[in-house]
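Records of this kind hold a single protein each, on a pair of labelled lines. With that in mind, the following record should read easily:
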Amino acid sequence: MERTVFVVDDDPSVLRGLERLLRSAGYAVEAHASARAFLERAPADRPGCVVVDLRMPEIGGLDLQEELARRGFPLPLIFLTGHGDVPSSVRAMKGGAIDFLSKPCDDTDLLAAVERALARDAEARAARVEKEAVRARFAALTPREREVALLVAQGLLNKQIAAELGAAEKTIKVHRGRVMEKLGAESLADLVRLVDRIRDT
């Protein structure tokens, strides 16, 4: 799927300049003159990043960042500002911003920030795909296999799990083997990592 750089800035000349620069660097670009306009067409699940002005009428960059987080849109943000201050930059970075650049910013710095943002977006998307795959495999376990998986991940031995669940140790051993096979876990460490991933959802 094509990666898109969404540019949000209320200054028409800045918007045109950024769009021209990003297109010349080979990126697909969508330009918006306000945060509200962007939110009306905010992509549900398109790869990319957002380059946004810090101060805009109605909805500023920091408010847009919070609104995107609230909506569950995980696009990385790069802030541009002619009015930077330490509290704003700290708030932006704590909110997960990739960079906080002053206007006029160096083209090389902006393009490097965009590349970092797109790389982070790609990593986050790959992690979400893996997490969904793990959740699907976990959902395919029987209720008893799920119980065994959780207890094995806690470090309990087959004998302890058997006592906990009131089952024969031999039965637990069979369940444990099926759990490892269905989840694609090759070791106890693999199983612990997969169960942690499920709990992190």
About this structure: The mean pLDDT is 89. The first strand starts at residue 4 and ends at 8.
